[in-house]
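Notebook entry, structure prediction.
Reason for the run: the old model in the group folder had no record of what sequence produced it. Starting over properly, with the input documented here first.
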Amino acid sequence: MKDHFKDISQIIGEPGEELSFSGEVTLEPVKLGEELIETPSPLHVDVLVSGINDGVIIKGNAFGKVRLRCSRCLAKFDYEASTSIDELATEDIESVAKDEVFPIVDGKIDLAPIVYQNLMVEIPMQALCADNCAGICPECGKNLNDNPHKHAKEEFDERLAPLKKYLEENRS
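New structure, fully documented this time:
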């Protein structure tokens, strides 16, 4: 299903008639807020399209890898995403709110925006590359998953505070 435009002309306005499609849909990278959401490979889609009086109902699911950025360590990682699809498409797009239905153009539906819309609501707001992600070191900014480390804390004896102050003032 590399061509994500599917011909459904024979079931439009035919209640009870059905067509099923199974295959892949490629989604273009898109910015979601400040993040670039990418799909490194096509997403697998299985849908059943059922005719109704003024259009079709599209039901099924989509799944595949989505490349995200971890909210703790900022590394990119592949997230296994899946979503269910339950959408309405019609040729008479003027009579309904455009954000509630998808258009049927020349007897075809475009599965890419349908998959995209349903998949985006399934992506976590704060994605983690792993549940136990260590994040970034607050001292040096390095990824603690790649290089676990701790920085030595400076031991300071308060009794030497006047000497420390004197040395700082007379450094030159």
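Summary: The beta strands are 5-7, 18-25, 30-32, 35-37, 43-52, 55-69, 76-90, 102-103, 108-110.
The old model has been moved to the deprecated folder.
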